[in-house]
Sequence to fold (331 residues):
Amino acid sequence: MKKNLIKIFLPLFISVFYTGTAQAVERLRIGWVYAMANAPILIAKQKGYFREQGLDVKIIKFNSGPLIRQAISAEELDLAYIGAPPVYHWYANGLKSRILAKVNYGQASVITRKDSGIDNMKDFKGKRFAGVRNGSGMDVLLRGYVLGEVAKLDPKKDLDIITISSSNMDPAVEEKIVAGAFIWEPFTSRSLMRGNTKVVLDMNKEIPNYPWYVIMAPENVINTKRPAIIKVLMAHKKAVDFLNSSPTAGNEIIAKSFNLRKITDNKGKTHDANSIVSEARKRLGWEHELMRKDIAFIQRLMDYSYTLGILKTRLKATDIVDTSLMEEAYK
Fold:
């Protein structure tokens, strides 16, 4: 009889005892663009950094920014790890959000075949070139900075930019379908390690530690879940610190998460998945703090968007960036 009573009441006791703890857990939904540069969200989730902050975080992978916007508009997401340009493009179109913290620097580069005869960006004049969807964040960087400032080329007149998916860009270059591509990691490294291509322009050498992916949240979420967002930023900082703790920290998690496979180069040498990540880290890194130079670069991107006609009115980066939560989280 005594044993039966224990079986009946012990689960009830445990449930009552832990009710306070269960109620203290904050549930958040975080979307992220499926890109190696967004590795900190994977580290924070898999190593339990969100959970350490008392958060129950569901991370949701997206293949494009527009899909994240749809989810945010439908109130299906609380935060997102995404490129800075989509945030201010959406802001201009009525989706009032804020950039809260930095995720990464680098990642983008221009590649061409080693035997192409192309040695600098100006050599692409009159050539066919692979880019991404017109008006996207990477397209703004390509047309505004890479072609406009570096190459002094008119993207509408001086070369033929065709849209190719990121996973098909490096094969398109290697098979001579295009003369070059504005590409990012791990696709750049995958191509370089096969041995037939070279980097013509490394964005991180052009503008060291330039910001790209950021953490953003809509104004209404910031207003209603500010303490929880601060905890997200604390977990994010820990994830970035882990990645920066050694040149190989997190490489296995990244390789597995992005389904990287070994590569055999043109000399028959095999390179494993972790080697691809190590190669990528030559052009890509992670930071959590948005600094003045980062905000200045975001302003530069906004100006490109205006010049290219994507933005109809000029915006100020200070209207989009809110560092107050970051400062509270990192103090």
User: Anything to note?
Assistant: The longest helix spans residues 219-243. The chain has 16 helices and 14 strands. The CA atoms of residues 261 and 273 lie 5 Å apart. The domain at 2-105+212-330 is CATH 3.40.190.10 (D-Maltodextrin-Binding Protein; domain 2).
